[in-house]
Design a protein that fits this description.
Blueprint lengths: L2 H7 L3 E5 L23 H13 L4 E4 L11 H4 L4 H9 L6 E7 L5 H15 L3 E6 L20 H19 L7 E4 L4 E3 L9 E2 L4 E2 L14 E5 L3 H10 L2 E4 L4 H17 L8 E6 L2 E2 L3 H12 L4 H11 L15 H4 L12 H7 L8 H8 L9 E2 L1 H13 L5 E5 L5 H16 L12 H4 L11
Parallel strand pairs: 1-2, 1-14, 2-3, 3-4, 4-9, 9-10, 10-11, 11-14, 12-13
Antiparallel strand pairs: 5-6, 7-8
Helix pairs in contact: 4-5, 5-6, 6-7, 7-8, 14-15
């Protein structure tokens, strides 16, 4: 292991998940919230710079390709992620910028060019969150001239091929291909240009890409997936894996599994970082933190919950007559013989607690809330929990999905980060200028020109 990678493995790493006024479904209704946050560029810049001042690895932008009347308000009216990271790359200096893009509803050439353009503009700080797209609204395919959403196994077969093609396009040029030799009239070295000529199950792409390598060669790859094909995709390609587990034993088991799979692919498992998704709430006391969550929860309407679940389960259940405080067990959800494939993760989170998890709780889980009492309380309590999860092998870092923005981000940045810095568990300065350098990774993928 190189010295830079060794140093970075000793620290706790952080991504800040940014969505409008926060991941909480009713955050936009809070008295301090700015409801237009998702389409206000200055707001996005403020969040990115707050995370940069705290020396986070990166900010992380999710995406959705279909919305309806029951969608989380934070995603109803927002910027395209690639467009936003391109713009943020010009007004930030060090922080990484990770954008989500779908392998099910994009084309490799278009995406490879747009992402590498953003990577150049930022000086090598862009990452790609690889997704196959959850169809929360049951209507995604209709936005892309298709009749049906791809089934789970086909989505992941297509995803593996999509990443292969994209990486092939990013390798169209050697790092020193462009000589710009005015005296001899040679703009580039033809021997350092590589055509792709790819033909596979899903794609046929000639190449080459009409843009060369960035300062970190190409965007860092990130991925979230707990299913067998999802873990395989991440273990094969990604350097950052997003997961969500309720306790240390389950989180450690997942991390051990994907590291073993990475090893089987011939990779160094230490070049794969597992970021557990959490929604930390920091306050002067634990009671104050819990009260702030209760305040947000009180702003969610019962109708909002029931309308969403009725559509999510596509008529398999009738929620008429139930309130949002009814439990999962009372609702009949457990009687569904074949729930949606993307319900797997939520099912794992509530397993064994079906008699206490309410429909409102389930709604929050399905739409992004990653609440865990280990990370709710005083700065000292949250810092201690982060250190424990890291020390016990449950996480290399954390994807912070804040309930209310910018307040929760600012409290974490000014309250928790300094404590971790004092313990030598969080960086005080960036060691490099690219996103890959923040993880101690070599810019050039191994075995590539």
């Amino acid at each position: 292991m190189n010295q830079t990678l060794t140093r970075e493995r000793q620290q706790i790493h952080f991504f800040a998940y940014l969505v409008g006024t926060g991941i909480h479904l009713a955050s936009w209704r809070h008295e301090t919230a700015f409801p237009q946050a998702s389409i206000d560029f200055e707001h996005q810049v403020r969040l990115a710079r707050t995370a940069e001042d705290a020396k986070f690895d990166a900010i992380f932008l999710g995406d959705s390709l279909a919305i309806d009347e029951t969608s989380n308000p934070g995603i109803l009216n927002r910027f395209d992620p690639i467009g936003l990271v391109t713009a943020l790359g010009a007004v930030t200096t060090n922080i990484g910028l990770i954008a989500t893009s779908s392998t099910s509803y994009d084309e490799p050439f278009n995406f490879a060019r747009a992402a590498l353009t953003a990577d150049h503009i930022s000086g090598g700080r862009v990452g790609w969150n690889i997704v196959t797209t959850r169809d929360l609204t049951n209507s995604t395919a209709g936005n892309f001239s298709a009749d049906e959403h791809f089934d789970h196994s086909l989505r992941y077969r297509r995803a593996e091929e999509f990443v292969e093609v994209t990486q092939g396009l990013w390798n169209s040029w050697d790092s020193d291909a462009f000589s710009y030799d005015k005296d001899n009239g040679r703009f580039f070295d033809r021997h350092k240009l590589h055509r792709l000529d790819y033909k596979g199950e899903f794609f046929k792409v000639a190449g080459p890409l009409n843009i060369g390598p960035s300062p970190q060669h190409s965007p860092l790859l990130a991925q979230a997936g707990t299913s067998v094909p999802g873990q395989q995709l991440g273990a094969r390609f990604a350097n950052a894996l997003f997961a969500s587990h309720p306790d240390i034993p389950q989180a450690r088991q997942y991390r051990d599994s994907v590291r073993a799979q990475a090893t089987a692919f011939g990779r160094n498992p230490d070049e794969l970082y597992v970021y557990q998704a959490i929604s930390p709430v920091v306050a002067d006391t634990r009671d104050e933190a819990l009260e702030r969550l209760r305040e947000l929860d009180s702003l969610i309407t019962d109708q909002q919950v029931l309308d969403f679940l009725q559509e999510y389960f596509a008529g398999q259940l009738d929620f008429t007559g139930l309130g949002a405080d009814a439990t999962v067990a009372q609702s009949g959800i457990l009687t569904i013989a074949q729930p949606r494939t993307d319900f797997r993760s939520a099912g794992e989170q509530i397993s064994g607690r079906e008699d206490e998890v309410t429909l409102k709780d389930l709604y929050s889980i399905l739409t992004g809330d990653k609440r865990n009492h280990d990370f709710i309380g005083t700065p000292q309590h949250v810092a201690d929990s982060l250190e424990r999860w890291h020390a016990e092998g449950a996480a290399d870092g954390f994807n912070l999905m804040f309930s209310l923005l910018p307040q929760d981000l600012e409290r974490f940045a000014t309250g928790v980060i300094p404590l971790l810095q004092e313990r030598g568990l969080a960086r005080t300065e960036y060691a490099g200028t690219t996103l890959k350098s923040h993880l101690g990774l070599d810019p050039q993928p191994k075995g590539q020109p």
